[in-house]
Amino acid sequence: MAKDFLYKYVLALGDDALILGQRLSQWAYKGPFLEEDIALSNISLDLFGRANLLLEYAAILREKGSTADDLAFKRNERQFSNHILSEQPNGNFADTMVRQFFLDSFYKLFFKKLTESKDEQLSAIAQKSIKETTYHLRHSSKWIIRLGDGTDESHEKAQSAIDNLWMFTNELFEMNQIDNNMLAQKIGVDCSSIKAEWDQIIDEVLSEATLKRPENTHTTSGGREGIHTEHLGHLLSDMQYLQRAYPDAKW
Amino acid sequence: MIVKKEKLFLDKIDAGLKIEPKDWMPDKYRNHLIRQISQHAHSEVIGMQPEGNWISRAPSLRAKMVLIAKVQDEAGHGLYLYSATETLGITRDELIQQLQTGKAKYSNIFNYPTLTWADIGAIGWLVDGAAIVNQQSLRRTSYGPYSRAMIRICKEESFHQRQGYEIMSKMANGTPEQQEMAQDALNRWWWPSLMMFGPHDSDSAHTSNAMKWKIKRHTNDELRQLFVDRTVKHADVIGLSIPDPDLKWNKKRKHYDFGEIDWDEFWEVINGNGFCNKERMKNHVNAHEEGQWVRAAALAYVRKTKNGG
Amino acid sequence: MSANQLPLWEVFIQPKTGAPFQHAGNVHAVDKEMALQNARDLYTRRMEGTCVWVVKAEDIVSSNPEDNESFFDPADDKVYRYPAFFKVSKKVKEL
User: Fold this and answer.
1) Cβ-contact A119, A187 below 8 angstroms
2) Per CATH, is A2-245 categorized as 1.20.1260.10?
3) Which InterPro entries match (chain B) (predicted)?
4) B45 contacts in A (CB within 8 Å)?
5) Higher pLDDT residue, A177 or B203?
6) What residue ranges do the domains of chain A occupy?
7) pTM of the predicted protein model
8) So what's the ipTM on this one?
């Protein structure tokens, strides 16, 4: 039972990184200028690297012979436990940066806490992730400021992105049975406890960017329980296509 | 005065010295370089598209990461080369305009579609393989910034070819469907890869000046032969067959004889009638136009903060 | 400056601690933060550096290799076209 909780916990973290990495990788050759193309693919690579580590660990916990690829390519929509925010479409550059900024701020705080995990693997992965996330957050928060305080058009797009994506942010701080179990074992993080700091980061950057929190602060969740938006199905059918079409093949 | 300068310039070239951005150079040399280096840069950038097409569908996490890194390298190579071109007195904006209006060309090979995952293997193995043959030769090109960019690019390029060959090798040794996919990709990418080396030396308008000024260090046909000799052996190792019935080892020449390229197809694609020419350009234009508000925002922000606002 | 053209920055990389900085190339960026990030992404992808410097291209002052025979432009203080790639002097060694 305990092993099952740990497996699900690690799997969720892996899914978060995998789905967000997949989203970012879709910006290849579509960036607003070449240098930004490289920056986005860098972040995507960091996320896939993290996903690989986490999913490899999850695979070991699951059963002998299972691999990270098995988990990434052979599970279906209801078995993915990533935060819903990660699977939201790229939209325009402002949508992507807002999504990234919300998540980077969260991950920075989350991984800082996870370094204290009693689970050595998770602690090590967290230490690596902090370095990356610090860089990611610098990048995304700077863009929020440029877009918010740039032109009228960029301000409008950024505000619109905030208004649309806000509803998915509360899920980041929810604690379900698995999270509570992991926390009790000093393996996992108390996500609810980092909300206040997250709010601070968000408000500071939004203020500098001359942007506002949305008026409608309704939120939704369900990702950890496999209740996703329709976007995930399309993302998976694209991502998993080759492995599903050629089940006997090794790649 | 100009005659004296031109003599000094040619002496430098003959002595194997580098020409640097602030050195005097004939307009023809400058223009030739702008054309050649920028077209190389454009090729790297457009080349991101056929490969980028399969990033989201890469069949394993490792393959995906390797492909992202490769496409990222291509963006980087484009940047090194735009950087080198800009030293000749032209801006990135002008270069992008030249590409989008069709005034500047890019390598034809990227006007072919990537239909299957095996195409990604074929591109790495054949297209990057051909590019390597070309690029190694250019490391000793006479223009300093170009030479240095090429040295940097060559260092990064070898992983690209290995990535492609590894994909082909795995598939050639995989299920019957994978083998078929791999052979099919080789069949479609072989001849376009040979076309990458350009027309026969006898039909090439730019070659003689390029050789005289040591911009080009080897001829089209020399490089094409080198590529064929190397690549046939690669194919043998993994059990794939080169789609050329005229391919035969020539004991006397100590090189492979190979069939004639379909030059009609070559000129059709160069002149814009390839499968993906329009689409490649449309994507490039779209990304650039869509990015306009982002660039404008970034510049507006900097101006505001500079003015203390 | 046109809306499309982000300013040009020259990039210098220190390959390892204690070594001299080398000119690596350039990047386009709006501000020094972006220039640093872009330079890091472009020129140190393969762990090629411990430290990165970025300087606006227009702030670089270059000597003129043909001071005597400046036929086209007696550019002294400002770079005429674009700064040449600086070569690392082989004479510089660690003491």
Assistant:
1) yes
2) yes
3) Aromatic_CoA_ox/epox (IPR052703), Ferritin-like (IPR012347), Ferritin-like_SF (IPR009078), PaaA (IPR011881), PaaA_PaaC (IPR007814)
4) 29, 34
5) A177
6) 2-245
7) 0.91
8) 0.96
